[in-house]
């Protein structure tokens, strides 16, 4: 147990150190723990609880390694294929002590195998003190797979023809969406949630955030004939962005979730993604556009509140406000004209389970051969995103919505396919969101807001 003193103390390190120093420390921690956990001659039999602690320390370090390595854009300290240690047993400490006293289990792996057989035979779904932790580890494993698939050499635009590259992107996207849906179905269910981590809405948000990251990476890598991305991928990205923003804002409004730089980044990039999607696909119906605009507005309100607590984020908030105002100005009159000629249907409240198990949800990824003909539902079934213009004005009085005619050629005054300023705007935000804002953030001319007006 002494070998775990150092990594355990580092894991308990206070959160006040800012900047990349903290992440470099965590990056080194991953390498340290991978050495400590490596197979070694056993000197004595470890108790089940000691093995459980060993696994928990290792997998906590694994999650930190993935988080810091992706942030610092460095290789993982430990590859998934080299990991031989199992996940922690889904059991409380008292249960492990009791099982150890019987002498029936030589090690924790045998206990896990017996517990799995018991759960299958009884069809019971129970929660323990490590259920949330294990769910987070399994999600981080999928995140690692997403990063390796789309950031590594698995999909290379330069080494494949446009046809095979497109197929590779869609095949990887389909598999990873399936993995995320399987993870969501396996998330623990608490009968009486006592905190955020026991709420189903939190697991919905985590899944949507990963789906947003995945869809954006696929949209970035897929070949684009004549610089036009596939409509189905654009729509998927739009759905994920709307779902992630509205899902977070519901929790944030109820003060069930707090602000972090990571959530700030999710809201900012999600909003940019919605604006991008609206500019690329110009035949969305009014309901889809309205829901997208409402998501942008909700994201702006949340970002403004975060900006009060994160002063160095205000310039990003200003950019978001300018972009959002421009989109609303272009869309508002079009939506009003449509609503007077034909009343728009409304989408009733949708529960977290319906969001992922309903007939028209992201949680049901289509087969690979259906992507070409895929027409996603124009109604984005996202709870809390069906406000009309008057309702939006009432709820968000400080958000301007101007009546300016909608351009017939484009929703936005710039061509995002030829100008990557909007799509890549979060390049500096990546560094900011994890504690190391770029030097230009404080410059007086870091953003030229006039270009967005």
From TrEMBL:
Xylanolytic transcriptional activator regulatory domain sequence ranges: 25-94
InterPro entries referenced in this protein's UniProt entry, alphabetically: XnlR_reg_dom (IPR007219), Yeast_MetPath_Reg (IPR052202)
Entries under CDD domains matching the protein: fungal_TF_MHR (cd12148)
Major site of localization recorded for this protein: nucleus
UniProt-annotated location(s): Nucleus
MF terms in GO: DNA-binding transcription factor activity, RNA polymerase II-specific; sequence-specific DNA binding; zinc ion binding
Record's keyword terms, sorted: DNA-binding, Metal-binding, Nucleus, Transcription, Transcription regulation, Zinc
An example Gene Ontology CC term for this record: nucleus
Source organism, top-level taxon: Eukaryota
GO biological process, one term: positive regulation of transcription by RNA polymerase II
Protein name: Xylanolytic transcriptional activator regulatory domain-containing protein
Organism annotation: Penicillium brevicompactum
Lineage of producing organism: Eukaryota, Fungi, Dikarya, Ascomycota, Pezizomycotina
């Amino acid at each position: 147990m002494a070998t775990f003193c150092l990594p355990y103390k580092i894991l308990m390190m206070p959160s006040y150190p800012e900047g990349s120093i903290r992440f470099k420390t965590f990056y080194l921690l991953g390498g340290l723990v991978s050495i400590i956990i490596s197979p070694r001659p056993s000197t004595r039999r470890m108790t089940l609880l000691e093995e459980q602690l060993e696994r928990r320390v290792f997998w906590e370090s694994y999650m930190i390694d993935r988080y810091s390595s992706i942030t610092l854009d460095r290789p993982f300290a430990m590859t998934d294929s080299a990991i031989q240690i199992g996940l922690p047993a889904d059991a409380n400490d008292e249960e492990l002590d009791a099982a150890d006293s019987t002498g029936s289990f030589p090690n924790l792996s045998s206990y896990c195998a017996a517990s799995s057989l018991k759960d299958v035979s009884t069809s019971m779904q129970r929660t323990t003190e490590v259920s949330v932790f294990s769910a987070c580890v399994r999600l981080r494993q999928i995140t690692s797979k997403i990063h390796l698939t789309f950031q590594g050499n698995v999909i290379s635009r330069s080494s494949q023809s446009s046809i095979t590259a497109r197929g590779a992107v869609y095949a990887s996207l389909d598999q990873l969406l399936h993995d995320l849906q399987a993870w969501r179905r396996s998330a623990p269910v608490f009968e009486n949630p006592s905190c955020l981590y026991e709420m189903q809405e939190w697991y919905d948000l985590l899944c949507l955030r990963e789906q947003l990251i995945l869809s954006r990476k696929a949209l970035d890598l897929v070949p684009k004939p004549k610089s036009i991305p596939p409509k189905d991928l654009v729509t998927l990205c739009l759905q994920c962005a709307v779902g992630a923003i509205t899902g977070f804002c519901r929790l944030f409004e109820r003060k069930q979730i707090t602000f972090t730089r990571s959530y700030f980044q999710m809201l900012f990039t999600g909003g940019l993604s919605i604006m991008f999607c609206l500019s690329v696909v110009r035949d969305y119906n009014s309901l889809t556009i309205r829901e997208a605009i409402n998501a942008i507005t909700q994201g702006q309100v949340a970002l403004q509140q975060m900006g009060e607590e994160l002063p160095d984020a205000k310039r990003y908030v200003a950019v978001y406000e300018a972009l959002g105002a421009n989109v609303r100005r272009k869309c508002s009159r079009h939506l009003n004209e449509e609503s007077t000629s034909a009343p728009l249907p409304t989408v009733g409240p949708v529960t977290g389970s319906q969001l992922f198990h309903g007939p028209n949800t992201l949680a049901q990824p289509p087969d690979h051969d259906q992507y070409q003909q895929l027409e996603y539902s124009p109604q984005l079934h996202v709870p809390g995103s069906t406000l009309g213009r008057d309702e939006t004005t009432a709820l968000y009085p400080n958000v301007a919505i101007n009546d300016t005619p909608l351009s017939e050629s484009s929703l936005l005054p710039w061509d995002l396919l030829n100008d990557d300023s909007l799509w890549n705007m979060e390049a500096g935000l990546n560094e900011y969101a994890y504690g190391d804002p770029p030097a230009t953030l404080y410059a007086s001319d870091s953003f030229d807001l006039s270009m967005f007006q």
